[in-house]
Amino acid sequence: MSQGAEPRGVTVRVPGKINLELVVGPLREDGYHELATVFHTVGIYDYVTAIESDRWSVQVSGATAEGVPGNSTNLAIKAAKALARRYGVEGAVALGIEKNIPVAGGMAGGSADAAAALVACDALWDLQLTRDELEPIAAGLGSDVPFLLHGGTAIGSGRGERLAPVLARGELHWVLWVSNKPGLSTPQVYAECDRLRAAAGVQVADPVPSGDLVAALRTMDTDAVGAALHNDLQEAACSLYPVLDDVLEAGLELGAQGAIVSGSGPTVAFLVGTQAAAIDLSVGLAARGPDGDIRRATGPVAGAQVVQSIVPPGPGFTG
Ligand SMILES: C[C@](O)(CO)[C@H](O)COP(=O)(O)OP(=O)(O)OC[C@H]1O[C@@H](n2ccc(N)nc2=O)[C@H](O)[C@@H]1O
Ligand SMILES: Nc1ncnc2c1ncn2[C@@H]1O[C@H](COP(=O)(O)OP(=O)(O)OP(=O)(O)O)[C@@H](O)[C@H]1O
């Protein structure tokens, strides 16, 4: 740790994600499902600050902080430690997390914080790693973490950790229904999906992304994107959280051009064509229910980005 009076710290902003398409393939021997998914970041952000310290710690604040562990089980501190181990960094960091992304909501909030911690510590420790170089550590922390390093719109394959960018020009307007009750556990939702499929005698094929969504994203035609939204976990999330059927129906009746449960749920994402339509739908949903928090966001947005850095420049600095 430096001896100067100036604190050394880096703050990274990171968004949540929704899955515009989530095709769930067979259960693998390692306990994961083979996926074909289209990830899409939306502008709801957590902020992760890493400050040089003699010991590891994490503090969580913000609108959605409740229920997020302030100890070594937090995925962000696991990420910082994994990076230090891999690159032989001695010393530790104090992490501060300002949470706004829903917790256990299917928007990958914990994964986002892990990606942000990797980017913040990379800058703090001057490792100068590229996002691609951070990817293997990210994948070891969780299937969604590599995507949050990059953001934007991307196809995920394997267990979700193998990424290919998707050409998506322009922006999409989203209204999010966020449950104000405890969320859903991701492994439980996958298990429910397997159970429902077994009960219905479904033969599970290798997952393939639909060409329709990728074509619609090229022009960002809201009707076409809305029609192509698809989530194989939606039935399982609705089975575990029956109010979601009412939420989906309410948004569609109020004029949304598409509606989908986000990832493993229970957040529901509604697609509309304009900011004005997003305001109308939020007001309508808030008035009609079911009870929940209504948020608006656009996507795609960038992944984890440094927004503030208080690291004294090195000796060669002349500016
Ligand atoms: C639902 C999604 O958010 C969609 O992007 C992800 O698939 C979940 O990603 P994540 O939360 O990063 O998940 P991980 O931490 O890697 O895995 C948690 C658990 O989810 C289940 N899981 C996750 C990913 C995957 N491809 N198949 C699975 O079956 C497994 O039970 C696993 O033990
Ligand atoms: N930094 C973190 N932020 C949120 N939750 C965390 C964090 N670290 C650990 N957790 C734990 O992980 C659980 C799931 O959190 P998260 O908000 O990432 O769920 P999710 O959005 O449904 O995940 P995903 O969409 O990736 O499946 C939480 O209930 C919490 O106990």
TrEMBL record:
Its EC number is 2.7.1.148. The keyword Metal-binding does not apply. The active site is at K17, D144. Pfam families: GHMP_kinases_C, GHMP_kinases_N. Keywords: ATP-binding, Isoprene biosynthesis, Kinase, Nucleotide-binding, Transferase. ATP binds at P102, V103, A104, G105, G106, M107, A108, G109, G110, S111, A112. Pathway: Isoprenoid biosynthesis; isopentenyl diphosphate biosynthesis via DXP pathway; isopentenyl diphosphate from 1-deoxy-D-xylulose 5-phosphate: step 3/6. Residues 214-282 form the GHMP kinase C-terminal domain. Signal peptide: none annotated. Residues 74-152 form the GHMP kinase N-terminal domain. GO terms for molecular function: 4-(cytidine 5'-diphospho)-2-C-methyl-D-erythritol kinase activity. It catalyses: 4-CDP-2-C-methyl-D-erythritol + ATP = 4-CDP-2-C-methyl-D-erythritol 2-phosphate + ADP + H(+). InterPro entries: GHMP_kinase_C_dom, GHMP_kinase_C_sf, GHMP_kinase_N_dom, IspE, Ribosomal_Su5_D2-typ_SF, Ribsml_uS5_D2-typ_fold_subgr. Catalyzes the phosphorylation of the position 2 hydroxy group of 4-diphosphocytidyl-2C-methyl-D-erythritol. NCBIfam families: ispE, PRK03188.1. Belongs to the GHMP kinase family. IspE subfamily. PANTHER family: 4-DIPHOSPHOCYTIDYL-2-C-METHYL-D-ERYTHRITOL KINASE, CHLOROPLASTIC. This is 4-diphosphocytidyl-2-C-methyl-D-erythritol kinase. It comes from Ornithinimicrobium cryptoxanthini.
